[in-house]
Amino acid sequence: MVNHPQVQAAGAERRLQELGITLPPPPTPLGAYVEAVRSGKLVFFSGMLPVINRQPRYIGHVGGQLTSEDGRKAAETATLSALAAAKDYLGSLDRVVRIVKLGVYIATEGDFRDHPKVADGASEMLLQVFGEEKLSGRVVLGVASLPLGVPIELELVLEVEN
């Protein structure tokens, strides 16, 4: 793996500024649930969608109405929503010790096979913000459908400082 010393040296909040990334407003529940639950040092986030201000930014199936690149961009958008939710819940992304789990669920057509390329939109965004030492393994699955007809849903579990 490649060492990213400049990412490791800066905190997540500073990295967002350096990258010129402005987080969207934190997502709000679309049903009867909360966006985040803490148990000990772990914070479990509800499924994060490529939705900003309650409006889907992408709709359709990857490999059908959407290209792999569209799916990748949708994964980036869902990751920005996840980061906004984390910042809202924690007060600062600098409290993140590590990413424990990243799950990427992709609504796909037929025999679509580029799941890893699409999921890299989420993984690479997290790499840029948190650095390689805080990344986790991931699970990537193709599914028949997702809420609101979006192509991506992320599952995120973070370890945070006390």
Automatic annotation (TrEMBL):
It holds the Pfam family YjgF_endoribonc. Residues 13-148 form the Endoribonuclease L-PSP/chorismate mutase-like domain. This is RidA family protein. The lineage of its organism: Bacteria, Pseudomonadati, Pseudomonadota, Alphaproteobacteria, Hyphomicrobiales.
